[in-house]
UniProtKB/TrEMBL annotation, chains A, B:
Pfam families: Transket_pyr (PF02779), Transketolase_C (PF02780)
Keyword Cell division: no
Obligatory cofactor(s): thiamine diphosphate
Transketolase-like pyrimidine-binding domain boundaries: 12-197
Source organism of the structure: Zhongshania aquimaris
Protein name per its UniProtKB record: Alpha-ketoacid dehydrogenase subunit beta
Keyword S-adenosyl-L-methionine listed: no
Residues annotated as signal peptide: none
NCBIfam families, A to Z: PRK09212.1 (NF006667)
UniProt keyword list: Thiamine pyrophosphate
Spans through the membrane: none
UniProtKB/TrEMBL annotation, chains C, D:
Keywords linked to the UniProt accession: Thiamine pyrophosphate
Taxonomic source organism: Zhongshania aquimaris
Pfam families from the UniProt entry: E1_dh (PF00676)
Cofactor: thiamine diphosphate
InterPro entries hit by this protein: DH_E1, PDH_E1_Alpha_Subunit
Classification lineage: Bacteria, Pseudomonadati, Pseudomonadota, Gammaproteobacteria, Cellvibrionales
Protein's UniProt name: Thiamine pyrophosphate-dependent dehydrogenase E1 component subunit alpha
Limits of the Dehydrogenase E1 component domain: 14-311
Plastid in keyword set: no
CDD domains linked: TPP_E1_PDC_ADC_BCADC
Amino acid sequence: MTNKIKGPSSIKTYREAINDALRQEMRRDPRVIILGEEVSGGAGCEGQDDAYGGVFGVTKGLMPEFGRERVIDTPISESAIIGAAAGAANNGLRPVAELMFFDFIGVCFDQIFNQAAKFRYMFGGKSRTPMVIRGTVGAGWRAGAQHSSMLHPVVTHIPGLKVVMPSNAYDAKGLLIQAIRDDDPVLFLEHKIMYDLKCEVPDEAYAIPFGEAAFPREGTDVTIVAISNMVHRAIQAADELAKEGISCDVIDPRTVSPLDEESILESVEITGRLVIVDEAHERCSLAADISSIVAEKGFSSLRAPIRKVTAPHAPVPFSPVLEDAYVPSVERIIRAVKDVLGA
Amino acid sequence: MTNKIKGPSSIKTYREAINDALRQEMRRDPRVIILGEEVSGGAGCEGQDDAYGGVFGVTKGLMPEFGRERVIDTPISESAIIGAAAGAANNGLRPVAELMFFDFIGVCFDQIFNQAAKFRYMFGGKSRTPMVIRGTVGAGWRAGAQHSSMLHPVVTHIPGLKVVMPSNAYDAKGLLIQAIRDDDPVLFLEHKIMYDLKCEVPDEAYAIPFGEAAFPREGTDVTIVAISNMVHRAIQAADELAKEGISCDVIDPRTVSPLDEESILESVEITGRLVIVDEAHERCSLAADISSIVAEKGFSSLRAPIRKVTAPHAPVPFSPVLEDAYVPSVERIIRAVKDVLGA
Amino acid sequence: MPYDSAFLLRAYRTMKTIRIFEERCIKEFEAGNVPGFVHASNGQESIAVASCIDLSDTDIIGSTHRGHGHSIAKGCDVIGMMKEIMGKATGLCKGKGGSMHIADFDKGMIGANAIVGGGQPLCNGAALASKTLGTKDIAMSFGGDGSANQGTVLESLNFAVVLKLPHVFMFENNGYGEGTGANYALGCDSLADRNRAFGMPSEYVDGTDFFATYEVCKRAIAHARDGKGPFAIEAETVRFDGHFIGDPQLYRGKDEIKLAKKNRDCIKIFRDRVIKEGWLKAEEMDAIDTEVIALIETAVKEGLAAPNPDPETDLMADVYCSY
Amino acid sequence: MPYDSAFLLRAYRTMKTIRIFEERCIKEFEAGNVPGFVHASNGQESIAVASCIDLSDTDIIGSTHRGHGHSIAKGCDVIGMMKEIMGKATGLCKGKGGSMHIADFDKGMIGANAIVGGGQPLCNGAALASKTLGTKDIAMSFGGDGSANQGTVLESLNFAVVLKLPHVFMFENNGYGEGTGANYALGCDSLADRNRAFGMPSEYVDGTDFFATYEVCKRAIAHARDGKGPFAIEAETVRFDGHFIGDPQLYRGKDEIKLAKKNRDCIKIFRDRVIKEGWLKAEEMDAIDTEVIALIETAVKEGLAAPNPDPETDLMADVYCSY
Ligand SMILES: Cc1ncc(C[n+]2csc(CCOP(=O)(O)OP(=O)(O)O)c2C)c(N)n1
Ligand SMILES: Cc1ncc(C[n+]2csc(CCOP(=O)(O)OP(=O)(O)O)c2C)c(N)n1
Ligand SMILES: [Mg+2]
Ligand SMILES: [Mg+2]
């Protein structure tokens, strides 16, 4: 995954890249604020301020620089948090709200899908809601059924929302900057298993446009579309398969709404074969969505069934052995690729 | 759509059939209760009791028969309503909760997807949550963006939930009785445009098993899968097309989770062509889901691209001319069928 | 004279505009010219006007499903509103919103809301923007007695206190949430007391008394504008019509509406008071009545004549700012 | 002697079991034997025990992410719990739930809950079942100071009053929601007062005092069981450890924990009191300590030895009752 980097850069973790994006945008634009639970930490306590900087440490150091006025710790009231972000976005701010775990959309979904997402349309194009909701997704932390979901299919279904799922630090920084500058509500979903993942990241601010896929591996036999953390498993699978002479075209859409349909269709035109890897449950999933787009618009290129490699139709189990079996594995991807090749 | 009816029956509306199912199950089983806003109406008022019987009149007459203890009007507190239903279901009742408009899942989604849906799995199979959530879905009432959504893809995505979408009075009664008797949480979605639709309905109680499609039209050229109110448009399209000599196999899955995959795959095996009609938005939709199942498991039968006829990726507009253009029309279905036939 | 006559005439004109607008909506709905669900606010005009009359265009209000009155009181164009309610392309929201989704950002009206309890969290946001940007604007949210039981509203009260937001929570207690009595649905004895327990000043007022309501609002707005945080008001009022137009209202007591219209009509009470006090003359108000009726007549005429949106161009427009 | 010694010994044993269980969880977590997030409740044992000691197996409790103490107090098998927390196939929930999702329906424990504010609506439901079926069982929900600001909890308070549900809302105020002070996040001066404003009896109690807490719970449970509706309790307490195991707790004051352990240790306070009053002898309690330590040792040993679930058969089991 090589990004053409000009100018000074450094090796950064996914966590640091997100922090970097927030800091640079907050410096550039006084309208950018952050709010959520523990985004700083220590409010009303005797000990240290900025005690957490987000429970994953992503927003660490921002409160000391920008103050409690712009890095706002809140009560445990997610509807109020998202509502405050949306209302503030309608009125001149560019808030970045944090849902510590994206699983918590259950207690604030109305403010996301019925309010923020619909304002512009309902109000005849007269409003702008430039807000970002950052949330952590995904399994692997042994956090159990209520803290490990993906849920991107749920929000991707909703018109008016944009959904961004970076798979590496470089994309995370560029896409978050774009998300903050974007005038629509953006869900920025961080897979918690990737926070310590590193890559080279430019020091300066840069925005990656939405709807443009990345191509971590190029190939001609099978197209593999994978998102978020699954990109790494897809790459691993592709590298394994390369040893057996199977050439995979790995596509990372990076944003799932909007989706870079074109790149996927172009790839399938060449390969004729498609495997989609998605950590979400299978029903009405992004995997299903991409499959259906290709089955509709790329049908004539298809030379084999489209395979979905997804999490099963079950909640995320706690027990490590079960959770490991739950998340799509490199082996399952390899098997799916071989299946569509009839190998 | 002829159902083999033995024994006494009568012509009933969709509304009456649902009322009938509720009444018969409440008579049969004292554990069945109803709760929600205005399910009776008139609580704390000087005027008539049972003033509404649900804002669509579906539960009318149940409070007078079963009393306020079993037909419970609530404050406007959907999380409390759904939570109360789930907690009661865990503890010996079989509640039927009403979400006046299913759009209101936004303020109670956690209790549905993180709580009720997951209990059994999280708790190692030790709990049962026999509850039904009835909610009205769909456009056509000029009710605007926040009262006209479908949202079945959102809940179909979630493991642990069952999702039922009857398209006619006969199915509504039989499926609701099954839903009440079922030990899992069931979402029973009533398309508000169908409440006055009539058909012959047996007087006695009967349960229609989940996961078994109905076949309102049989044919050999193209499979049309349609759900809820779209079934009627699909039938109309099929009847129009029949005049031109095009024979459509119309499948109404009736329940979308579980889904009768087999019937769909069998039909496509014969027709080789598939059109899916779904009033939900297109991204991560049920239409996409069904398409992906066929593109994976029925690929070898496919002789043409799979077409989805869905609502667009836009909120439901208020203006009647726009709303009418928003909902998939008979014309669009006909065009899609001809497209897949290359006609 | 504690109020100058320009103020009183403006208050009267605005209340009357709401009344005639709502009455006409009902008529046009019944005539089939207004699609969908419409929730009329006649009977409650005094609260909308008392709340908004001192607000500027940059102060923000967030409204409810029963939002025509708030919109008019905040200065929205009634012709644009009528067109919107009729679903026309030249309506305030291009016909895409309708009665339950009217907004006018130029007037600081950030939206009616068809979700009970949808608006209060958003008004916290508007207030947060004002606080962060230091504009001194305040936000005022409207909600009913029924909405007060929605978790989103309750947590917004606490949230506003914690962040010390310039937000006035106005609760219009008209005794009903649809066909359920406020007596039943509110478990507490007093909504004003319950709101106060969240840690903000909170007052009860007879919302049919324009002047009493105005005075409370003035205090509340000053409190918020001075950076002292949120303020809650419970204003008791009467809903003259059904929950929605067409509601048979079986749940209401015999003669309840008749008596309310006789004794608790906020516009009548206002008129009687200003005449009795000698603040305004009946003729001045009668003249306004004539003008208002003409204005609404024009609104309906223009509404009926206005073009429908065009599905080709409008159905997919404005889902996003950028694609 | 106002309490018989069997009762006192039971209370002591249960509190001590929780304490040792939690301390051991911390150790096993640090040793890598417990996966995931674990929230220990040591310091808060008195509340769990005072709340549950009079409840029967058919009374219901609903718990939180910090639920070990409640589970033990309600009678869940500690060996099954330890296995569950270790993710083992023979755990109370077959290893699928883990620390944040323990439930034991046979003991009337309907679930820890990893969603703050998830449990209170559910306990309303349990209470509704009791009321409808006429069983006289009550429900008791646990929640923290932080959870009190979640809309789902707030609306559940009103809902319980309106439906007159036999539900005791226990709020354990340990001063923190993660690393945020309750002083900050609760906008009100008194949570007990705020809860009372919803229309139910509500009391504040020093939760480190087992006896005071027990007496309030007794009144609250009797109130609920007698069909008089819900009751709220705010019990002030101390969280001895981090929000989760591994939390560096930078937000806590210097010496805060040391002082709390010295002066506000509910078990120490209990011991001192019962010895001072002459109700129990130190040796009796020491003997219990030994037994409890042995029990937890066994739990850990059995936990470590217990088999993992089998992905082949277990991953897809129990998503539904029927397919
Ligand atoms: C979340 C949600 N629940 C229920 C409804 C249906 N509904 C619309 S208005 C209303 C009653 C609101 O009562 P109140 O807040 O007192 O306002 P009023 O109608 O009296 O102005 C209800 C239940 C809704 N729109 N949104
Ligand atoms: C809806 C939701 N929001 C946030 C969280 C993250 N979270 C878990 S525990 C907790 C703090 C809870 O504080 P409190 O209710 O006081 O309980 P305590 O941890 O002190 O026992 C938070 C914010 C969550 N699990 N669920
Ligand atoms: Mg009301
Ligand atoms: Mg706490």
